[in-house]
Amino acid sequence: MSEQWLTSLITDTPQEGYELAIKLSRMGVKYTQPSDEIRAKLRPEYGEDANGLIASSQVIAINFQTVSAANNYWKD
Amino acid sequence: MSEQWLTSLITDTPQEGYELAIKLSRMGVKYTQPSDEIRAKLRPEYGEDANGLIASSQVIAINFQTVSAANNYWKD
Amino acid sequence: MSEQWLTSLITDTPQEGYELAIKLSRMGVKYTQPSDEIRAKLRPEYGEDANGLIASSQVIAINFQTVSAANNYWKD
Amino acid sequence: MSEQWLTSLITDTPQEGYELAIKLSRMGVKYTQPSDEIRAKLRPEYGEDANGLIASSQVIAINFQTVSAANNYWKD
Amino acid sequence: MSEQWLTSLITDTPQEGYELAIKLSRMGVKYTQPSDEIRAKLRPEYGEDANGLIASSQVIAINFQTVSAANNYWKD
Amino acid sequence: MSEQWLTSLITDTPQEGYELAIKLSRMGVKYTQPSDEIRAKLRPEYGEDANGLIASSQVIAINFQTVSAANNYWKD
């Protein structure tokens, strides 16, 4: 991917950190399936499926661990 | 999401930390599927399905790792 | 949940820590599905299903990581 | 469980640590389904199923992280 | 595998680190199924399946934790 | 298992560390299903199944976290 989308893991607040974790999770999907069209077609498949939603929340949780550690849990 | 819902990972007690982990897990679902109506419709799908409940508990466990580390395991 | 069920992550022994990890795993299920009746009905579904048992053991393993780190692996 | 089965996470070698991780993984199953008879009946279900074997190896991997950290990766 | 493909976990930027995490995830698949032909045949199976995409993003997230820690979260 | 197969988590290079993570992942399968014959029969089941390959890569990723930490990410 030539586009620059991730220059830092540091955020001002935990909520921005959580939203960065969401972005990281989505980019994992995008790198695996680069076609916007196919991803758009699949979105309802997990967005309206309980297991797909829980699985999505799990990927976000894993990425949020990384972002939180990078920010020393916003304790500084 | 313009609403502010996460200003700190610090909690007074482990139980409040666990409850924050639940909130983080639910927000992952909410960001992925913002429609209150669709999420309400899906709730019985995982709430009354053994695998869905175990998967939900797993996401909470991952987020609880983050919250626990942020609070230095409430040892201070 | 108004009931107080988690006041500390510290335990005397690794085995008590493991049992606390089990409790944390079960509470994740209970918060997601608060009805005792529905949970009781679902118990055989995962308790007598190989995948459900492995998934349960996985959630316990994740929570045991947290409890073990909190106790500095019972090395002190 | 009144039986004492886990008194320490410390092992002499990485291989013994791996074998302790296996024991931890099995105990997660045993606590969830205490009946020896039912567990024996389910064993072929995951032992002869590719997904069940991979899932079992994953639980062991998570517990091995814990045991490895407890032993400072056997570097001392 | 005699080919040398991983000489360092250090990258200049978080984005390069994320892309290394993708490479690590793909190599896990390649070591398990070395046949280029079979892997090519399977690609549409997960690339056009919502669950496969989320699962792929999860493996990347786990590897990104490793790469991020190796780089001290690019904070130096 | 009386055979000695794991004497150290330390490797010279990240790639050897990744290959050790693969070995750890396979041993988790082998301990769970010791029969060479049954494992050989199951191999095509996950090696030619997209979900099985992604799941295999995930177990490797978890074990690679452990091996990478043990080696201080090969930074010394």
Number of domains of chain A: 1
Structural class of chain A: mainly alpha
Q: How many beta-strand runs of chain A?
A: 0
Low-confidence stretches of chain A: none
**Strand percent estimate of chain A:** under 5%
> What is the N-to-C order of secondary-structure elements of chain A (H for helix, E for strand)?
HHH
Largest interface: A-B, 28 and 36 residues
User: What assembly state would you assign to the polypeptide chains in this entry?
Assistant: homohexamer
Give me the number of helical elements of chain A: 3
CA distance, first residue to last residue of chain A: 33 Å
Rg estimate of chain A, integer Å = 14 Å
The coarse overall form of chain A would be flat
GO molecular function, one term (chains A, B, C, D, E, F): peroxidase activity
Protein name (chains A, B, C, D, E, F): Peroxidase
InterPro entries (chains A, B, C, D, E, F): Hexamer_Tyr-coord_heme_pr_HTHP, HTHP_sf
Keywords (chains A, B, C, D, E, F): Oxidoreductase, Peroxidase
Overview of the structural elements:
The structure is a homohexamer of 76-residue chains. Chain A has one domain (14-71). In chain A, α1 packs across α3. The longest helix of chain A has 21 residues, at 50-70. Chain A has helices spanning 14-32, 36-47, 50-70. The model of chain A has no long low-confidence stretch (mean pLDDT 95). Helices cover 68% and strands 0% of the residues of chain A. Chain A has 3 helices and no strands. With 76 residues, chain A is mainly α. Chain A is flat and about 40 Å long.
